[in-house]
Amino acid sequence: MSDKVSLAWGVKNDIQELVDTLITIKTVLLDAEEKQIHNHSLRAWLGNLKAVCYDVEDILDDVEVEDLRKQVVNHQSITRKICHCFSSSNPVAFRFTLGHRIKEIKKRLAKIATDKNNFTLFEKIGSNHVIGWERETHSFVHVSDVIGRDKDKEMIIDFLLHPSDGHENLSVIPIVGIRGLGKTTLARVVYNDKRVSDHFELKMWACVSDEFSLKKLLIDIINSATEEKYIQKNIDQLQTILRDNIRDKKYLLVLDDVWNENYELWCDLRNLLTECVSGSKIIVTTRSDHVVSIMGTVSTYKLKGLSLDQLQKHLPSNGIGCLNYLRSLIIHNCSNLEYLCEDIGRLRVIRRLWIYECPSLISLPRGVRSLSSLEGLGLKDCVRLNLDLSIGSDEQHNHEELNSTGPPLRSLLINNLPQLVELPQWLLRCSTNTLQTLLISNCSKLKALPESMQKLQVLGVLNCPELSSLPKDINYLIALKELMIGLCPKLTERCKPEAGEDWPKIAHIPKIQLDGKIIKSTEN
Fold first, then answer.
1. Considering the domain boundaries, does residue 482 fall inside one?
2. Are 496 and 139 within 8 A, CB to CB?
3. HEC letters along 129-154
């Protein structure tokens, strides 16, 4: 995955430095885990390291979601040259923010690596296992809690129950998709279906996760088949036990969350799984297309996100609040959608909300200001949308809005909202110290930009003809690294080098673009 991020977003050196630092720390992790019980400082050090690892995972998630967003949103630019920096083909702001996030993580990780020397830790290279860090999954699911995956389930089951083409005893079907789409959940639903249980004499489940360790996988697969955990056996004894258990049986094996891209490692496991009855099947869940190319023997099943129509057919009272673990929601091209579900505020872990090409959407639900984990919000081509949540509210709801915190946004992208005059307070209240990227384009009535955005790094405005001034405190925004202005004649005039009235206020910004031309850049 790190290679994919590096190639896609031009941060190869930064990613490699992260990897190198993590490798130097990894060799002492097992010793640290064993000693942390009696050492509070060491326990805190491990906690900091774990937090950094979670932030790295968040970066990978953001890249995956950004790639998905580019696939479903067809950006149309007004003036190609000027709009280039706003287009999906060259997402400057995203790449810029990504680079800064990685550099910040590098600083934290470098300190963690230095602090490691404060503890007497010994390298234990012989073991890659770190207690409590690996991801584990299980096969159980409440089928009634699964929404909108009936068609996917039937297609996978159809493959499992019918003979595969070719002469091999064993077939592998990969389920691929970004994190959070429900690959593991779909595998669970299929695994527990009565038709599948009746068809296969033996079912086994193993979570692979980051480390593709043959011995660990053999132990987990055998444990799933026999309920016996042979931890003390060597790998030769384990392979004998596995082959004895699957011989002369038609089995189903789920390998969940596979990341291994080493063909030889996969071959080592596959060769131990082939002594079985013809018709045995393996389901592999993964985010990686390269994993698919290594392991798959039949066509890949690409899991897609659920449409709003699919959700509304199954959700109680057209609500989505029951989707407790939803992290990303993209609503696209819903021409008749006027209102969103009122219980959206119950999505307490959602981090990204993108609403595009919904021309009939009138307002957002008041619950949106309760999205305490929301970091990214994108609104595009919602020509009737009014962001003032107080419209149509009674006195009680107005009082609630005054006392709500609002989402802690890190990025806000707005395009073609003709009703927008200024950003509402509910949207900014909790973003003062978090917002890093603000891009606004094609808002014909916009007259003001927000102030006091202390963490803002990228600010871009395009085709907002009524906008005549920058934030009054822009000269104090020391974190601001890039300013882009296009097709805003009043504002452009004020920002011209030397002669513009606002030039002294923005001269400190490292990179400035006016009407598609870079007039200042301190980049190498």
1. yes
2. no
3. CCCCCCCCCCCCCCHHHCCCCHHHHH
Q: Are 340 and 330 in contact (CB under 8 A)?
A: no
Among 243, 270, 302, the domain-final residue is 302
Nearest to 65 by CA among 368, 356, 351: 351
Burial class (CB in 10 A: 0-12, 13-18, 19+), 262: exposed
Neighbouring CB atoms inside 10 A of 160's CB total 21
Chain segment 122-151, per-residue pLDDT in tens: 765 444 444 344 568 899 988 877 888 999
Give CA–CA dist 352/389, Å, rounded. 20
CA–CA–CA angle 63, 435, 353 (5° rounding): 50
Of 70, 97, 83, 77, the closest CA to residue 461 belongs to 83
Give the model confidence (pLDDT) of 274-301 as tens digits.
Answer: 999 999 999 999 988 889 999 988 889 9
Question: Taking Cα atoms as reference points, which of 41, 207, 161, 210 lies closest to residue 112?
Answer: 41
- Domain assignment present for residue 314? The answer is no
Which residues are registered as beta bridge partners of 520? 512
- Rounded CA-CA distance 53/104 in Å is 13
Which residue range forms the structural domain that includes residue 189? 149-302
Q: Is residue 434 part of a domain?
A: yes
Quick one: tokens of 481?
């690294």
Two tokens, residue 323? 């989707």
- How many Å apart are CA 437 and CA 453, to the nearest integer? 10
> Which residue in the block uniquely carries the two structure tokens 């595969």?
164
